[in-house]
Predict the structure.
Amino acid sequence: MIKELLKNKHSYQWQFARIGGTNRVVIERGQDLLHLHTLDQKLWTALACPANNLMIDEKTLHYLDADDDGRIRVPEILTAVQWLCAMVSDVETFFKNSSEFSLNNFNENNPDAQTLKNSAITILGFLKASSLNTISTEQTANIEQMFVNTDFNGDGIITTISTTNEEEKKAIETIAACMGSVTDRCGLEGITEEKITGFFTECANYLQWRAIAESNPAEYLPFGTETGELFAIFSGVRNKINDFFFQCKFAQYNNDFANTTLPVNFADILQSPHESELQTIIGKLPVYPISPNAVLGFSGKINPAWETQLLQFYTKIFTKEYSEKSMTEAQWRSIERKFEKYAEWLTQKQGAKVETLDETVISELQQLQPALLALIAKDNEQKQNVDAMFLVDKFVCLHRDIVHILRNFVTFQDFYTSADSAIFSNGTLFIDQRSCSLCIPVQNVDAHTTLASHSGMFLIYCDCTHKQTKEKQSIVTVLTNGDIDNLMVGRNALYYDKNGEDWDATIVKIIDNPISLRQAFWSPYRKISQFVSDQIKKFSSSRANAVEDTMKKDVESATDTLGTTAPTGGTATTASASAAVPFDIGKFVGIFAAIGLAIGAIGGVLVSIVSGFLKLKWWEMPLSIIALMLVISGPAVLVAWFKLRSRNLGPILDANGWAINARAIINIPMGNTLTAIAQIPYNAKINIHDPFAVKTMAWWKKLLIAVGILGIVFGVLWYFGLIQKWFCIGI
């Protein structure tokens, strides 16, 4: 159907608007919905999106996801829009974004629309609504309640309340126990037609399989009704007895093997602390002592790990055939052949799900098959009416949300109008005196950053924990304003979702990109300042550590000297030790000379810079300062300008499972709306008295210092003749 509608694409005049750096179609009229199928898909902003983690009713997303694959695609949206438009007489109703719908707006010329209308009236009647003219999403939210304790509700499932016949009720319970039950719309466990036919197929196969053994019981059931029980005993010792007779044959081949030391370390057995380990080790030994005569006795030296099973085999199976107290290999093979047909018959077993039922019970249940299928047919008769009721819920949900979805799918109109109204934005993060309004849920932070890092935006990933429920989720938010000095991994924040619930948030990852031109302009100076600060800290720390180490060594040296000095001559010895190290004046002269050369070099550079600066004309001085700042900050600002112009929301959504078809640019003006900085209210009163403010000198002192500095500057400039030169004095 969609392919046929796509044939005529140029008969409708669409309206476009420049939004986010891209020409996007404007959806604002009913005719836009009627002709949506003619819009070239290359012009759609998104081609697919996940059917979860979106800020819209989950039922609406479920209804749009027609194939229930967890994704919503263009064909599914087109199908939903066409169905909605066919149901109403006035398509403008969808632009009201209302949860209520007037029943008079159903299309009178469409039988399906009239079916929906009748079902809506049925729902309103069941709810005893005050008005039968309108229906809302609140009234259809719990349609399932209409089917509580109902015998037939059109879901193809029958329960024990679907019949008053006790035999049929027991049959439903039996089939559910054997084949498994299914939950119907009223919440009860029941069975479907598939379960019923499967059960009776199992019954027929089981009876057919049983008939094979009953046709020749002498071969298939050598011990009558006890055959199954005895076969289980036989199977329990079969491999162990076969091993015994094989080992006896080997003893006949090699006499040294018989009664030799067994390959088990008995010292380990005695030292084993657990009985289970002992049983495991002993269980690997022969069931009976190996000998060339190959006779298995049922008394005497029986392996204690197999004694119970072996004696059970003897009393319940062997004694039925033989009277001896021991068994030869020929006797064992004779018993083994007796179970051959039974074992073969077991491999052909069918109908295992009903084997617990007696044949008489199965026969009685088979008589009820037509009655149970008749109940299924009666329930299916209600399917059309009941499905129509659920279609009413689908209709009112899509009626309320379809335009909102289109404005977030075909075009990002809602996002560019207000980021809070976008269906992919989940809440607001408050951090560092800022609120970030574009917050998007993330399933896997590491996987998300792989693609989202190409967005060109400053991204903050946070792990959030709900204050009360302790539920956890991860989000990514976009920072587009302010500074980043105080942002670091591990810092805490507060997150509010769209429902107003607050979550504790912790930064777990940051993707660094320019935030603003102002931040980019000052970033080189911040980096230089940080670098100088770090170097000073490193130098100070290293020098402090060196001083501490020197002091420790001096103290240790003095302590050692005192310890080796005699009491009577302590002072003289200490003095002599101190005098033992002569003062190296040449070394210190060299150090001071090096320091002087360094200071001189630095001073020379500073003098040349200052002298060159002072040679400039007075109006050239500020220009040179500005030029220097541009040289330092210019590259950073230029790079930031290009990045800020190309910030794209697409990679962030693509990393979340969207299929973005057009660029979603976030330019500087748009970005400023996504992050709000704290501002004092315009009508607030401020007490400027700060009891902890740093004390400053009186104003007249500041004035005197300023006048003095200006006088010194004026004197220096006059001395070098710059004042005369600049202002043409005495020339």
User: Anything to note?
Assistant: The radius of gyration is 46 Å. DSSP finds 28 helices and 19 strands in the chain.
